[in-house]
Design the sequence.
DNA sequence: AGATCATTGATCAATTTGCTCAAAATGCTG
DNA sequence: CAGCATTTTGAGCAAATTGATCAATGATCT
C-alpha cells in the first residue's frame, strides 16, 4: 500500500467527519450512522490509520487550560535565496508550533507556543539571530475573543 | 458545580495528558496507567466534560487532508475604541477560525479558513468593509514546512 | 467470463462500559 | 480533636463493544 498516495473516498470522508465530531464514537454506532457494516468501518479505520491519513485520536481541551502558555504569531522576512536554510534552522526550535510559507509582505509565518515569557523571549532572540532572517514582526496572542 | 471556575488537579491533568496522546484510550487502560481505580477515572472524566474543561473528543487528520481549504492569517488594525464592535462583526464571519487580540503593530489577529479562493476573497472584502477597521494585512498560508 | 478485492452478515471470546454498592480514605469545619 | 461530607476504592453485574474469522455476495477491471 502506497502510504503517500492513498486518497480517501466518500465513505472514508464520512467516517472522518463523524470522528471529528466525536472521536470516541464506537464502531457499532458509526456503522449504524453510516448505514454500513461494522467490519467495513473497522477495515476503513485501520487503513486510514495505516496510510497516515488519520494521525491519531485526541481530546479537545478548553482553550484557557494551558493558561501558562505564551502564544504568538511571528512574520519572518528572509533575505535572498536562503529560505531553505532558514526553514531548517527554524524547524529545530521546539517552540515553533507550526511554520508556513506565505506570499504577502513576509516569507514565513511561524506559530509560537512557549511555556513562559522567558522561553518566549529566548525563541525570539534565536530566530532573529538566524543567518538569512532580515526582518520579523511578532504579535503576542492575548485573549481569544 | 460552578462550571466556570473548576480547576483541574494533578490527576485531572494526567488524565488529560494521556487522552491528548490517545483520545480513544479505554478507561480501564487509563486507570492502569495512572494507578487509580477505574471508577475514579470515569468520575473525573465525567466531571471534566460537565465543567467544560474538556470540550470533546476528535481525530487528528493529516494536514493536507482538507487540501481544498484556503488558510491565511490576517492582521487587523482598529481605529479608536471600536474594538468591541469590530470583534462582534468579525465573530459573525464563519470563515474566521480563531480571533485574538494582540499587542504588536496590530490590534487583532484572525485565523482564516475558507473552502475556496472566492470564499476567501469575499471574507477579505467583508472584513475590510467593517466600520472601525482602519488597516489590515493578510498572509496566505502556503505549504507547511 | 474470470480474477481480484471490498462488503456484508454472522459468530465467537475477550474486553470495556455503565452502573451500583459498601468500606476505606481524605478533606474540611466547628 | 470529633464529626461530617466528599472522594476513592474494589467488587460485582449486565449490556455493549471490540477484534477476529468465515463464507457468501457485490463491484470493478481486463
Sequence:
Amino acid at each position: 500500500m502506497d502510504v503517500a498516495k492513498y486518497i480517501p473516498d466518500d465513505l472514508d470522508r464520512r467516517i472522518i467527519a463523524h470522528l471529528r465530531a466525536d472521536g470516541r464514537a464506537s464502531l457499532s454506532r458509526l456503522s449504524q450512522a453510516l448505514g454500513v457494516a461494522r467490519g467495513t468501518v473497522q477495515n476503513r479505520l485501520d487503513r486510514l490509520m495505516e496510510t497516515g491519513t488519520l494521525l491519531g485520536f485526541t481530546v479537545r481541551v478548553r482553550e484557557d487550560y494551558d493558561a501558562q502558555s505564551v502564544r504568538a504569531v511571528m512574520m519572518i522576512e528572509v533575505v535572498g535565496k536562503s529560505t531553505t536554510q532558514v526553514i531548517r534552522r527554524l524547524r529545530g526550535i521546539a517552540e515553533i508550533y507550526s511554520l508556513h510559507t506565505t506570499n504577502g509582505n513576509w516569507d514565513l509565518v511561524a506559530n509560537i507556543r512557549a511555556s513562559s515569557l522567558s522561553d518566549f523571549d529566548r525563541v525570539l532572540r534565536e530566530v532573529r539571530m538566524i543567518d538569512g532572517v532580515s526582518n520579523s514582526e511578532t504579535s503576542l496572542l492575548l485573549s481569544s475573543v
